[in-house]
Write the structure tokens for this entry.
Amino acid sequence: MEKFQEFKSLINGNPLKIVITTHHKPDADALGSSLGLASYLKAKGHNVIVITPTDYPEFLYWMGGHKDVVIYNFGNEKKSERLCNEADLIFSLDYNNLSRINELGKAVANSNANKVLIDHHLDPDDFADFEFWSVKAAATAELVYELIVKLGDKSFINRNIAECLYAGIMTDTGGFRHSNTSKNVHLITAELIQAGADVTKVSKLIYDNSSLERLKFIGYALSEKLQVLPEYRVAYFAITAAELKRFSSKTGDTEGLVNYALSIKGINMAALIIDRTEAVKMSFRSIGNFSVNEFAQKHFNGGGHKNAAGGRSEESLETTVKKFEEALKEYKDELLEKPDVVSVS
Ligand code: 5GP
Ligand code: MN
């Protein structure tokens, strides 16, 4: 990290007003790394507020500090702007482009606070004064762990911080299955368990905490909505707003669905295309060499990682699906390449 000593003296200095922001519809890594960092910085004596641009799934409500999160679009627009204006330091966690935090991005951009980026996505924008960024990290939570250790404060990692960070690492590695599951991931995970993380509790709360309606929705999607394009080795779901309503879909209910499409034998790329009314949101996953990050950037104003990315479209669901299928033509050869891995997602 450039200017690390300067950053360290800020963190070890007088109490600061700190705002931590993370991306639209935070997942376990986004929220876990934010709340883990927040707990640590509070223990260092700082005044810390986590602001999310939107709500997040209920299966993350167990994380310590969740009740104090300010959700920007829940009528907290003015409050968030004030907090950003008054802040000495603003952290950007698990995203690297201010468009990922919607309108909150303007409040961050307009603030005179020092900006700190902690992230593991490809192609970061240049908006931060301090960067703690690595695409080699499986999760932002891994980087938060390393940052705390680098600051000499490993002993500050209590059970809550350990469980928040563990949740981020567990989910961003797909339960320690994806190709980003490095030796470092397991070494850090061991340290988090040592610090008190209860792995059974965290995995139960995150993975086995579905409503009956969510399971029925997954069943419906699998039996009625899964499209397979064997000529491209691609499979995808396109979900309408009416279908979300029919199954009373809540934030987080569609998480993981795209992986079912990728789990089909012979499929190299999967997509989940959802009409979220304000826009059509897309999730992409791949195995092997095919870069869904590049695909999402080029065609759907998105980005992410090589094997997991997202994007959006302002057009109708139907038009977006057509555009998606059309875009695949350009990549036919690449998509048909046999990946040199047995299974990653
Ligand atoms: P998911 O499909 O789980 O929403 O996201 C997969 C990955 O892509 C995550 O790392 C997420 O942060 C990133 N991502 C999702 N949607 C977008 C998007 O619209 N733009 C960018 N730049 N990244 C995205
Ligand atoms: Mn992440």
